[in-house]
Amino acid sequence: MKLVSIAIFGAGYVLGTKAGRERYEQILEAAQNASQRLEAYSNGGSIAKDRGARAHAAPSGDSGQQ
């Protein structure tokens, strides 16, 4: 009975650490993306400026005349 319990605990531990590692990598990637965005924003907000310019530009093919 003890051997079965140890085997179940061991399997659960291995599976849990694998899932934990995958989640850790997801969190790490999200943190790196946030850091890059913050750095780009602090360097003049080029991302926000680009998005704003595209939002205010006329759609392609529309010259504004009718």
| Multimeric organization | single chain
Query: Helical region count?
Result: 2
Major beta sheet summary: none
Q: Name the poorly predicted regions.
A: none
Radius of gyration, CA atoms, in whole angstroms: 25 Å
Gap between N and C termini: 84 Å
The overall pLDDT average reads 77
Order of helices and strands: HH
Share of helix among residues? over 70%
**How many β-strand runs?**
0
Structural category = mainly alpha
**Portion in strands:** under 5%
Please state the overall shape, judged from the principal axes of the Cα atoms: rod-shaped
3D architecture notes:
The protein has 66 residues and is mostly helical. It has a domain at 17-50. Helices cover 79% and strands 0% of the residues. The chain contains two helices and no strands. It has helices spanning 2-42, 46-56. It is rod-shaped, with a radius of gyration of 25 Å. The termini are far apart. The relative contact order is 0.06. The mean pLDDT is 77.
